[in-house]
Amino acid sequence: MLKRKTGKIALGFAAAFSASAALATVAQARDLTIVSWGGAYQDAQKKVYFEPFKKATGVGMNDESWDGGVGVLRAKVQGGAATWDVVQVESDELAVGCEEGLFEKLDYSKIGGEAAYIPPSVNPCGVGAILYDFVLGYDKDKLKDAPKGWADFFDTKKIPGKRGLRQGPKTTLEIALMADGVAPKDVYKVLATDEGIERAFRKLDTIKGDIVWWKAGAQPPQLLASGEVVMTSVYNGRIDMANKNEKKNFGMVWDGALFTLDSWVILKGSPNKDAAYKFLDFAGKAENQSKLSENIAYGTSNKDAAALIQPAVLKNLPTAPDNIKNAVEINVAFWLENIDRLTERFNKWAAK
Amino acid sequence: MTDALLTGADASTEVPLKRRLRRAERTRQVKALALVAPLLVFLLFTFAGPIAGMLWRAVDDREVRQALPKTVAALANWDGKDLPDEKAYAALASDILSARGAGTIAIAAKRLNYALNGFRTILTGTARHLKTAPEPDTAKETLGKINPAWRERTTWTTIKDAGGPVTGFYLLAALDLTRNVDGAIVSAPPDQAIYREIFARTFLISLGVTVLCLILGFPVAYLLATLPPRRSNLLMIFVLLPFWTSLLVRTCAWIVLLQSKGVVNDSLHWLGIIDEPLRLIYNRFGVCVAMTHVLLPFMILPLYSSMKAISPAYMRAAASLGAPPLTAFLRIYLPQTLPGIGAGGLLVFILALGYYITPALVGGAADQMISYFIALYTTETANWGLASALGAVLLLATILLALVYGKLVQGQQVTGGMKN
């Protein structure tokens, strides 16, 4: 009796200590589980992807939402209790998770072939879902002269008031450099040097007292609406939604925007791989993707989707030719290498 | 012979008695243990086990060893004075080739990049360019050509230090320390040395909030303890209602109140007290206000329960013996509330240490507490070693504080200076 108990305790310790050792789990028969970002975005996905997919294929599926973080996926997969199958991830989660072997390698022949997708969205571990931007957002009702770009964002004489930026070095340093006159295409070249990093922080110093730092995507529209800030960096879809659903009059500057992709991945060891591929194939089709863009202002990954979208909608998408002309893709490799060091550097600067 | 028999008999009756006693004692202990066993096992499983596992991650360092086993073995006897010999280079080349096949290169690269920024590029770049195993005796030359970093001593000491199986690297990093190329412990470079400052900030904010809670909570608790039940019950509901409201709701309510076009600023403006809105939020002030509000009930309730037990007769006796009100309060009443102050203070302080949501929402970039960084490294950058090390330092500091508190309380004699 007692012996069995100590065995149990030992087992408990073993389980806790070897969190890295994936425990063999019995694949339970459960429905396909798809995980996305929640909010209005997931509502749009439900409308154009999830519900029609269930109807069209008869596959049992349910959807959940999450807040991101590769640590969460690592815990899911390594803990051996992965209750998720298909997850939408950001570009850095895709890269790190791919390196750590958290995702299944995709067989593109099952989802329409690589040629069907725009090049940046093709990755061995995941396939592009949406393309979106960090843009400069402002309230047209409050600003008589619209800002032209990041240089105006840093010009408190021309446009007085507070500015919102995302807390942390990512996106902040790129924006500071563009404001300081670095061309969008050269941003990461400059940022790769110590001098470039110094330059970015020097530029940030000029408006340090006027910055309100936001942490979650829902905050910037809130900050604009309450008049706490006059301009802010913000996801383009959030501005669009505030204008549509809350009758706001917010404007965006596409010049010098930072764009990035979210991708669909299949978690390693998913018991529902076939159903997962069926879903990715469905969500990758041009006619389905064009419907998503009409519901929410994000660009999509299928090459032929843009042709099916009404011109009025298209001009507000990150993938519209005019909008992507002067945009920079957030450099995942750079941030993987430097995020910890620059996060420390950023907090050092903030505390000064 | 008979003597021997007798003593033997004596001995044989005495020993079993002792033994029987011991056995009875043991049976009692086993029964007691059996009664608490389910709870004990539950706690081990859900509490002690995971925490031990978390702490273990702060020193666990097997990623490089698993990805580059031959290199780690070859460097075991290297003194670190000059560049390692040809054997180590050949081992590294062969490790890189097999790790590339197994897909473990990036994991080692990530770990080495923590210690030496840029290592990710060095290792993954080398893996990309190294097509086949170099000819015998040319490994050093080949690797040096691919990336000049392989001709640097620091590159190799970094690999040796990360060879595991356990490391002090993360714990040192959590205290702003690092090992230099010669293995001596030195301060981290100034632009990366932030954690001591953040621990200090965390303790300072917690202390400030505790003091504010005490100043605000003491009179309220006194009122609660001395009012007639009917009115004190109503007041108690006012204390408990926010206590039952979601933390997030209360934090967001403060944003509405304190923002530059919020209720407080608008009222002050309307009254003509200010022309420009005051900065009441996204700074230290906002953090202290919101956290004090959220934690106030944790101070009031222990204070209330200790005050409830104080008989009003003491104060009356002090007054009749000629003590002025202040003296009576300081020498009779206050000492009797010390246990409540101690319990409330410790509770608020320790809860405040781990606060995350409130400072994240109402604080600026310079007001984030240590929990923000633990969360950042746990979920976003997946640097679990550093996250665990920061957690371990916080846990240790908290335990030390609790021990000091315990000592202080034990030394207290709550007699209110009325020793004869």
Protein described:
The complex is a heterodimer of chains A (352) and B (420). Chain A is an alpha/beta fold and 352 residues long. In chain A, strand 1, helix 2 and strand 2 form a beta-alpha-beta unit. Chain A is built from 15 helices and 11 strands. In chain A, strands 1, 2, 3, 4, 5, 6, 7, 8, 9, 10 and 11 form an 11-stranded mixed sheet that branches. The N terminus of chain A is likely disordered. In chain B, helix 10 packs antiparallel against helix 11, helix 11 runs antiparallel to helix 14 and helix 15 runs antiparallel to helix 16. The termini of chain B are far apart. In chain B, a hairpin with a 5-residue loop joins strand 1 and strand 2. Chain B is mainly α and 420 residues long. The longest helix of chain B has 56 residues. The interface between A and B is large, with 44 and 52 residues.
- Flag low-confidence runs of chain B: 1-6, 413-420
What's the shape of chain A?
A: globular
Secondary structure: number of strands of chain A: 11
Oligomer: heterodimer
| pLDDT averaged over residues of chain A | 89
